[in-house]
Hints:
The structure is a single chain. This protein is mainly alpha-helical and 259 residues long. 76% of the residues lie in helices and 4% in strands. The protein contains eight helices and two strands. The protein has helices at 2-54, 58-80, 114-124, 126-142, 144-158, 173-190, 195-221, 225-256; strands at 84-89, 104-108. The termini are far apart. The relative contact order is 0.16.
Amino acid sequence: MAILLKKVEQILSIGTDLKTTFTYLIAVLGIPVLAVIALTYINRNSKQRLAQRLGAKSIIYVSGLGVIVHELSHLLVALLFGHHINSFRLLITDVPDDGGALGYVNHSWNKKNYYQFLGNALIGTAPIFGCTLTLILLTRFLVPGFYQWGLQYLGNILGLATPANVPAGSGNWLLTIIWVILSINITIGGFDLSDADLKSTLPAFGTLLVIISLVLFLMIKLGMAVTIHHYLLILLTWFALVMVLSFTWSILVNLLVRI
């Protein structure tokens, strides 16, 4: 009977660990992907409406910096995974009036190299991380008061220890205006995963998902669940701060181009 109870406890323990792994997977992959897909839809719609009113070239002025960050993210991650860069343009300024790509990175890889194959999953989604990091740095250095306030507010919601109270409005107004302009530009041009980005990601995404699941499960079995939980909350706080700003800019711009 004791052996049977022990077996049941082991099964329940595995079930709990699998549930925890699934929860962390949603935090690591699910939330960011869903958020960026939503941003892609909003910003693509904004750019289409803007192009219809003012021509395709007008998109460069409101999203050019974002396009550069977007393509540069593809380029750097492709190099990181050993892909060969055939050609690239970080920003195409001579866009025809009927539309077209604003930038591209053409790369090739060795199909027998598993490392390069897995890289496709991150190369296609690289703009998510590149734009997020860029916006975090911009906010940190241009509007440090708002940055600290935002982290404190979100950290309190998530139960994290946060710095002392900082007024959200403290800072230089000129830097704040520059921050708003740059943030809007990066959000509109950067968080827009093309169909080609998503298509190149899918083949390797399933394999990467299995690997991340196994790593998380093993770490949880080794008693590292608290550590994972702590660092995930920190990452989610930063990401949530960027997403709140990005959705705010995206929705405001989309409303403006509808007027």
